[in-house]
Design a protein that fits this description.
Strand order of the largest sheet: 5-4-1-6
Distance between the termini: 30 Å
Order of helices and strands: HEEEEEHE
Largest sheet: 4 strands, mixed
Length: 91
Amino acid sequence: MEQKDDWRLRGQEEYLQNVPLYFLEYSPRSETWEHEHCEFCWAKFVLESENLHEGYCTTPTNTHKSLWICPKCFADFQETFQWNVQNNNEK
């Protein structure tokens, strides 16, 4: 459960408060940009086995505008940030 002095909080409410999120399987956005990081804990999303392979994204597909949130941080901050998970068909 998230606390106000949680080290992961660094002003994300300025750009992640009330944004719709999509639960996605991670895929690289290009051949030269093969990974992303969680906006809170910096966990790595990449196709290699020891990393995250799915999580919550601010866009329905991975693009240069996408921000990623790992499942743990999503669970910890969902209430605080008032996120609503969208169906991947809703855009």
